[in-house]
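It is worth pausing here to work through a concrete case rather than discussing structure prediction in the abstract. The textbook approach is simple: state the sequence, then state the predicted structure, then interpret. We follow exactly that order.
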Amino acid sequence: MSIQGFEDWLKTPAGQYVLNWEQKQHDLLVADIFGFNAVQLSLPSHDFLRANRMPLRFRCDDGRYDGFSEVRSDLHYLPFAANSIDLVVMPHTLEFDANPHQVLREVERILVPEGHVIVTGFNPFSLWGAKRKLSRRQALPPWRGAYLSVPRLKDWFSLLGFEMQAGAFGCYAPAVTQEKWLRRFQFMDAAGDRWWPIAGAVYIVQAIKRQHGMRLITPTWSDRMARAKALVTVTQKVDQ
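Step two, the predicted structure:
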C-alpha cells in the first residue's frame, strides 16, 4: 500500500471529480473549528486547511512523494507534543498506510482533549469499491490500498476514545475515466444523496477526542500562544 502516484491520479478527470468534492467538504467543516494549531497529514500539494482560521497550520508528510510540506516526518511518530494540536485532517492517509492503527494512535496522542480529526477515504460499499474488487489493475491508484468502511472507522475511533461528530458521502457517478461520461452521470450525485446516501464513492467523517470524567480546563490565551510559538520552533528543527 502506497500513496505514491495518487497525486498524479488526482489530476485526471476522475481525480478532479473526487478532489473537488472533498475540498468543498473540508472547507465547510474546518471553517468552524477553532484553536491554535492545525495539521494536515499527507497530500501536501492540496491545502485542505485553507478555510480554517487557526494561526498555525502545517502540512506534514513522510517524504514519499513530491509536494509542498512544512514538516517531513514518519507519520507513525509525529514530531508534535502530546495534547498540542487542535485539528488534524487526514485526506486518504489511513487507507494508503501499511499501519493505519499507529497513525491514528499518534493522532489521538497529539490532539488536545476535545480536539477534532477529519478523515476522508474511499467507500468499499460503492460502485467504485465494486470496481476495485473486480479490477485487474489494483496495483495502480486509486485502487491500490485498503479501503476502510465508515463502520470500521467508527469502531477504531471508539477504541481510542473518539466520538463521531459529522460525516457525508459523495461522488455517486460510476468509476469512469473520461470527463464526458462523468458529466453525463452528474444526475446521480443529486439522486444519490436522496436515494442511496451511503453508497457514495468517497466519504468524509469528523470525530472529537473525548476524555470522559475529565473536566476540561483550557489554558489562557497567552499560554496557548506561547505553546504555539514553541511548536513552530520544533517543527522547523524537524524540517531542517
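Step three, interpretation. Residues 6-239 form a domain with the Rossmann fold fold (CATH 3.40.50.150). Confidence is low (pLDDT under 50) at residues 232-240.
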